[in-house]
Amino acid sequence: MFCWRDGGSVKSNCAKGVSGMFRKLWQSGMIALARSRRVRNFAQHSRATSFLSGKYVSGETPAAGIKRAQELLAGNGIRSSLFYMGEYVDDWDLVTQNIDNKLDVAARLGQAGLDVHVSVDPTQIGHHLDPDVVAGHAERIAKAVQAAVGNKGGVNCLMFDMEDASLNDPTIAVHNRMQDMGLPVALTLQAYLRRTRQDLQAQIARGSRVRLVKGAFAAPPDIAFTKRADIKANSRALIGDMLSQQARENGFYPIIATHDTALQDFTIETARANGWAAGDYEFEMLLGVREDVAKALAAKGERVRLYVPFGRDWWPHAARRIGENPANAMLLMRSLFS
């Protein structure tokens, strides 16, 4: 471990280095646990860990997801994007199950008068089995979203989540194809990737809906920013692009997905400076993560949406949420040993 003096004491910079190393080890460890079938089977059938699913997941069924979405809207004016859990699927039966659940929840959202806002991972709908089937499956879900909306207002779309860097090009291609067909779709881009500014400019030119996230997948430094300060700086640059006058003129819709209050404040300041009113863009956050911040934003008149997962395969999602912050170590210990 190297300790250095850079505008502060040797001791404080050394502490930062140790903290950064621990954070990386913690995150990599939790990702490994998230992917472990043995741990998943234990966690999802253990009373000790059941409260974790209640914190980060709305329930097992589409009905549970709808109920949570209704509660969020009625209680705090917060909208939802529903996500049926289960990614990196390598079984055709599971692909069919994933599609059926997304079709079901789209119809239920429309019937409930909520935003028909459904998120999908390309690997959920067959990418790992046969990339050629993804567009057809996505089209089917997007058309179901469109049908469920009818003449209702709101922000309605099939949101393409972005997975690891190898899926950037195919995900963008499917999104663009659906958009060219006139279907209600949106795209997720990741601030930690070096290519994202170029990808974003292309989507601004198309007048797309784009959700900007930090990105949680491991990637080498030649394609990704690896330091938190660099990722945050790139996030600010990307938010500036999303809230530019050109983006506004093109009908672009910015979705800023962050729990970082400094970035949220920066977003609001940039929006106002460039003539964007609250409701011309939105913030998105995760169910169970800093919901007090989400409620405070909504109370100020900002449009806020929570990513609301549902389904039985909840452990990978919950484990990643715990892994995002080492402070959550106590949460995990409580679940395992209480």
From TrEMBL:
UniProt xrefs under SUPFAM superfamilies: FAD-linked oxidoreductase
Keywords on record: Oxidoreductase
Gene3D superfamilies in the record: 3.20.20.220
GO MF terms, alphabetically ordered: proline dehydrogenase activity
Keyword Transmembrane: no
InterPro entries: FAD-linked_oxidoreductase-like (IPR029041), Proline_DH_dom (IPR002872), Proline_oxidase (IPR015659)
GO biological process: L-proline catabolic process
Residues annotated as domain Proline dehydrogenase: 73-329
Protein name: Proline dehydrogenase
Organism, as annotated: Profundibacter amoris
